[in-house]
Amino acid sequence: MMEENEEQPDDHQSPEKDRGRFRLHMVTWNVATADPPKDVASLLHLNSPKTPDLYVIGLQEVYSRPVRFVSDMVFDDPWSQLFISILAPRHYVKVSSMRMQGLLLLFFSKLEHVPFIRDIQATYTRTGIFGYWGNKGGVSVRLSFYGHTLCFLNCHLAAHMKYANERVDEFERIVDTQTFDCKKAPRIMDHRLVFWFGDLNFRIQDHGMHFVRSCINNQTYSLLWSHDQLIMLKEKEQLLQEFEEGPLDFQPTYKFDLNSDTYDSRLYATWFGFNGKKRKPAWTDRILWRVRPKSPPNDEPDLKDVKGRKQLKEEEEEYPLKVRQDLYTSSMEYSISDHKPVIGIFTLELTKMYQTPLVSLHAEGDWSADIDSMVLYSPLQPFPSSTWDWIGLYKVGFSSVSDYITYSWVKDDEVAFNEEVMQVFMSKEEIPVRGGECVLCYYSNSLRCIIGISEPFKVQESKVAVAEGLLPERINGLDKIARSEDF
């Protein structure tokens, strides 16, 4: 097995079978400390005939007062709980998440792709109040998807019309300071594909309130584009020029009166008691993307750079990646915040660098809580094994890596092995008494991800528990009788 934490393409794949198209559904929403709505079906397009392969959800201003924030560090916050409760029954797994005070980033994948999402890392950068406060900044998740390096960066940048340049400075600082423990892509801009999204806070300048609202009412949004600060700054900022964005053919998403579709109508008090101006509508909430450009030639490169660029060029030619945006819009029906959510749907067309999971595993024999059980697993490709690798038992429809029933350390509980197949012991004490449909997952500590998933199998109901009347519903009933007798 490999010692280095690097992936290698599968040399045995057929070139006719290694191309894939994957649907990515992205959401960005400044929720203004509100609790989640009861229904997010339209936000996630749950009734669409085209189901996404991946969901990426970036929120800003999630409620983070001290008591709630401490509880959210122990348990999932209400927003995460909502999305997990909706997506897990549809066989999506929360692959990663990152929280920095009010900033939250969630990454979900269909179960079938999970063994091919590897080397997952997440980090954050504070930019608020001298860089020590996390009310502004960026949170990111990076990973390898079928061998292609992807990075998702959710930002909440400085507010107010006059701070456009400061917003660019904050973005550059986030991009420059965030690093990852990954040789292929140690920095954000090293990734093959980067998505930059969030409440970027860019405004529409120069135009007056009456003209802006007239364009919105007439749906002549294009008349406003030339004075959108982000579009304007792209003309002179090289970093911004590398990012693409779809046309802003939807209403500006800020600022609305709460619980309405009416743009800001409040009167703001000033220091001297006069009424301040209403906030001008703006496209503050955005989704942009960047495909890594081909390395430009360097007049005097060192040998390491030449070799690295050559490898990148060969990889790009052999394993192409294309991005197409299929939808870019706002969702006007949600009114719990002064922002409307923005949805971006993309098709990622790529050539897979591998099609085979790193590990194959399955349950040996019949499983129940009456007997100790065995897992058989086989490495299918070289990978960096570790003493901290483990195999988890999960219910079908599990929500995340940590949503296991029980687990066994691969090295500690290995009872037999040969060159091809290895056995791992799993104690009956932790196997569910009532049984159910389950899967086994192999977790690689070095790659920070699940690298193999078994086919679903049936864990039988415990015959001993049935005979002795010890099934959970019976135990719960006895507990209630005992408690009633105490009174």
Task: Explain what you see.
The protein has 487 residues and is α+β, with helices and mostly antiparallel strands. It is built from eleven helices and 23 strands. It has a six-stranded mixed β-sheet, with helices on one face. The protein starts with 18 loop residues before the first strand and ends with a helix.
What structural class is derived from the secondary structure elements? alpha+beta
Which residues sit in consecutive blocks of at least 5 with pLDDT less than 50? 474-487
What Rg is obtained from the alpha carbons, in whole angstroms? Answer: 26 Å
Q: Count up the helices.
A: 11
Mean pLDDT: 89
CA-CA gap between termini: 63 Å
Largest sheet: 6 strands, mixed
Question: What is the beta-strand fraction?
Answer: 25-35%
Kindly report the spatial arrangement of strands forming the biggest sheet. 3-4-2-1-13-12
Shape: globular
**Strand segment tally:** 23
- What is the helix content? 10-25%
